[in-house]
Write a structure and sequence with these properties.
The structure holds two protein chains of two kinds. Chain A is α/β, with parallel strands linked by helices. Helix content of chain A is 52%, strand content 10%. In chain A, the strands form two sheets. Chain A has a seven-stranded mixed sheet with strand order 3-2-1-4-7-10-11, sandwiched between helices. Chain A is globular, with a radius of gyration of 25 Å. The chains are: A alpha/beta, B alpha/beta.
Chain lengths: 444, 338
Amino acid sequence: MSEQQNQQNPKKWQPKEKFDKKANKEKQKQEQEKAEIEKKQESNKESNKQESNKAVQKQNSKVEQQQQTNQQQQAVNNKQIVQIDGPMEQNKRKDFLSHLPIFQDYSSESIKSVKQIDPQTLHHSFIELCIQYQNGQCIGSTHRCVEFLNALKQFIKDYKLPRQSNYFAIAFLDELKKIFNLMKNFRTVNEGMSTSYLFINECLMILRDTKLDENESKIWLCNQIDQFIQSKIIAASELIIKNATQLIQEGTTILVYARSYLIENFIINYFKQGKQLTIFVVDNPQFGEGSQLVNRLQQQGISCYQILLSHVSYILSKVDKILVGASSMLCNGALISRVGTALLACLASTHKIPFLVFCESYKFSEKSQIDSLSWNEIAQLQQENEKQQYTSLSLRYDITQSNYINMIVTEVGLIPATSVKAVIGEFKKYNYVDAIEIPRKYQQ
Amino acid sequence: MNSQIAQPRLYSSKESILALKAHLSAKQAKLPRNSTIEDYIIYIKKLSNRLKQGPLDFWIPNVFRRVIQVIRLMSSEQGLLQIKNKENNFKDLAHTIQRQSSRSKTTVETGTETGSNEIQQNIILPAIEQVLEELESHSDDINTFASTHFFTNEVLLVYEYSTTVLNFLLSAKKTRNFEIIVLESETETLGKQFATDLGKHQLNVTLTPFTNAYAIMQRVNKTLLGVDAILKNGGLLMHPGTYAICVLAKQFAVPVIVLSGAHKLTPKYAFDQTTFNELVSPLKINSNSSVDQMSIGITFDYVPPEYISLYITNQGQYTPQSIYQLFSDFYDVKDEDI
């Protein structure tokens, strides 16, 4: 009987386990000290139960050990849930979405207190960044990536080599891995951040073969990061805007969903050239991105119409083109973007309206995904259902299939959705940016 | 008619019929001395025009059309269609009707009646009673089909609040086990209310915002919708967002079942989203809207008949291609322009 319970329970606790191993180490230490005493008592009771079951059921000793560790982890988890006072929704995730990660909210105070005790947790710039991710102050794939790289530069400047290793590159590789893994506990890492991580890895490999000392390595690495931002994000966006301006004639009616860095700059640029557009902005009140875009456009003196996603059917007959930003483009041609994009794409294909995606090439990914539920992120809703007569569900991302996408506007040109794989292959040859200059000792 | 009120459309239909009853019994009723059936019919049409709350109010004219149709049917049964020249003592008429309406709602009593009271007592009032009864019991008739369309452990999708769907699910719960996903529109709280009402009855309910519709649709087996008006070509008018859901459902080959009482049948035709629609105040959508950032909000969504699999009404089950038959039974062609 207890065996069956153990087999069922580990499945429920999986997201919690990943989370507990890597997250706030200090919190765990403090609570484990308190829990250890009680844990011992409990494990004694459980081992007694185990022995009696063994006698009755004649089990393998290995299976028993696994069950013991599971039960101990359960005991720890139980304690931590009670002490952390986390949202109760974590325990009641529906079966069909129990595989998706749920992130617990951290308050800045708890993280700062942790940092004072144990200086080996995240650097303060990353902690601030992660809190911003959680609050929703820093959303949008480009924004998050750029902020991450800025925080990383700050970290590089403050980083001091431990005495044991002489080589900056090797030590930093490990540090980078640690940081990346810790950050995954706050929000999932998006594709742009993964590409930049791979790029920095490549740089560090090159650095390892040279003989620069610590300061010069740091300076060179920071320069490389700047170059990455400059060429892959800023210069790319200029090229994309140039490409897109050829596509969209003056006076067309466009529909935009949520807020994309590229599309925002494109519209502002278009109006600065003196041309006119009719703009409909579809708002997503849950994330508030549509209204942010509208405010930003208003500051630039551009007027637009605001509409909700459920009311979109009314104006679809009047719209010429639909423009959408991307979080990443997948190898099978699918688009990962803000939730609701797929619905818009479906409606667009029914009404035969061109559906354009604006995406820089650093967001191209080698993964493939078919439907929105196999991997996604659950967004924490601000209002929790008090009586809990129903479970609420709110996703962050959406998969739009390649047959709905008419064209992707990138800095390498205008490509169909199916060519993503070819573009990735090309970039792999060139270290994701271009050939990286090998640093020399005399460079400053 | 505000779409923001969580009241069934039934409410306005019922109230208007009760108002008709009250009008007929009141002393201020402006009926000519020798009232015939046609006079009553004209009177009822005028009353519906007065009570109607705008060109997009379908429910009040529908119910009055139904009353007129029942009057016609009853009078053709009794052969009383062309009766004239009966004495009409108006005060007696008023007294007897007041006495009757104060007793009970059901049958007509043959108390003291003068000659022309017969028309009113034998035809008009019973007609009104019949229509009222149809309105009140429509849910029970629909629920007879409750378990015939579901299999075990299905996942159903519903959108915003609908009392018809609520009753249907509660009666289906007795024989089937299923899971419900409620889609919530962005501005209104009706979705949450629906989820709590369903959850009170121990149903497995999930609430999602409207934007997640595509992600969720993969998991859904059937869609159940309430409706605001069923049009004569088989299309329907409903809360904004329904068109998007129906398009998605067709993509995923999910059947769309529409539940409604027959009082929603509207003998009109629509072509696109703008035929029967109204823009709502921008401030309701977004309180920050101004001239530069105008918010657009609409009242209805038109869904063409190709997206719907089945209509379940209290008069039976129909496909969109065959629901016109119900119109010819339910209404008369002469009354379509009320």
